[in-house]
Sequence to fold (204 residues):
Amino acid sequence: MKIKVVIAGGTGFVGQGIIQLLSPEKFEIHSLSRHNYVSLPTDKTIYHRVDLSNSSELQHIIADADWVIDAVGILLPNPIRGITYKNSSYEPAKHLINQLIRQTNTNFLFVSANSGPFFMKPYLNAKRAVERLMKQSLPGRSYIVYPGIIYDKTRLSSFIPGILLSHLVKVSYFKKLRPISRQSFSLEIQRILNGQHSYLEEKI
Fold:
């Protein structure tokens, strides 16, 4: 039987990287997002437009999932648009965790962050708050990865800083920023889904 994987934030930069790498022959992949998404004809992913706060709608999708991956989140808030770390990072994770408490056989994988510059402290605080909640609510079923900047040539805003930082990782400060290509990151996620350990599960 295929491994059912539900990716919250599956239409985003990180989520799409994961989806592109997972084989549809081995994984049944579902994507959750707030907006409609037009996929390519070759994409066998099942896309759901869903409000994570709608418990009945969410429960129907994740009821028999083997894994739920939280790839939702924002890098910077936007007060003008009412986008905060609380409503765009912490609360979506909380909705997922609350539903998974009922699903005793479903594992939860959270994309956290290893470190960041001083001005990213609120971002890291939101990540750490989710970590505490999931460890408390889903003992034995919580998995966390700690990447730094995830970069890919399809997004120059991440690619250029990522490449630059990757050449500076021998310096202890920059090592903690842990730059990683989107493909390498997705490979590590695949390792975890296959029951293997990933170095990204260790914070440095």
User: Anything to note?
Assistant: Strands lie at 3-8, 27-33, 46-49, 67-70, 107-111, 142-145, 150-151, 180-181. The chain has a mean pLDDT of 94.
